[in-house]
Amino acid sequence: xxxxxxxxxxxxxxxxxxxxxxxxxxxxxxxxxxxxxxxxxxxxxxxxxxxxxxxxxxxxxxxxxxxxxxxxxxxxxxxxxxxxxxxxxxxxxxxxxxxxxxxxxxxxxxxxxxxxxxxxxxxxxxxxxxxxxxxxxxxxxxxxxxxxxxxxxxxxxxxxxxxxxxxxxxxxxxxxxxxxxxxxxxxxxxxxxxxxxxxxxxxxxxxxxxxxxxxxxxxxxxxxxxxxxxxxxxxxxxxxxxxxxxxxxxxxxxxxxxxxxxxxxxxx
Length: 268
Hints:
Pathway: Amino-acid biosynthesis; L-tryptophan biosynthesis; L-tryptophan from chorismate: step 5/5
Family: Belongs to the TrpA family.
CATH topology: TIM Barrel
CATH architecture: Alpha-Beta Barrel
Number of helices: 12
Pfam family, one: Trp_syntA
Protein name: Tryptophan synthase alpha chain
Strand order of the largest sheet: 5-4-3-2-1-9-8-7-6
Subunit structure: Tetramer of two alpha and two beta chains.
Oligomer: single chain
CATH superfamily: Aldolase class I
């Protein structure tokens, strides 16, 4: 079993869902970014979803765009990101680590080269936000070659055909969008997702994690009760970083508190 399967099985045995925080690697700077990621894990994160900063993040709202700018301005290059990923993997051999990024970054030095670097750094999955599942063949081929799960998004307005394709081509987990649009904690995640989840399960899709607009423990609980395997929270986590840029220790303690509370909500 790979890291995702092992983690989902371990959680199911304890009747828990997964809580997965997202942060941009290098925000606010590479050194503090490593402290942040260590804090997320210590507070109970079941997996990590990490962004490689890119100058034009299309699917992201202002909060994540801000984190990207801070990371880029502090000198966070893809090479810095991969070094940091290697460190995380050495310290935490079992936690699933996913990357969320954009196609331009994958193309920069060649698709194969990118996935090889992911494999070398111990990355488990890659979600390329601006590549629809039906245009993903060359990304999937490279991912498969290097043992990386390709993650696909199941949007709230997806038809049966799209859900079937997402189920067939995806690995690791399925990123279930709670609503269409850009990311952000301001817009509350909207249910009902029951129909989407039922359809994904019928097509034997990888476990679904609900993302976009997840900022409160009650939403995590709702997602799991609706049948999702867990929830991903990005903007709400990044906002904590943004609020505490002048005080690293306060930042880490608020992050610890937030992740602990969100994780507690997975024990339904």
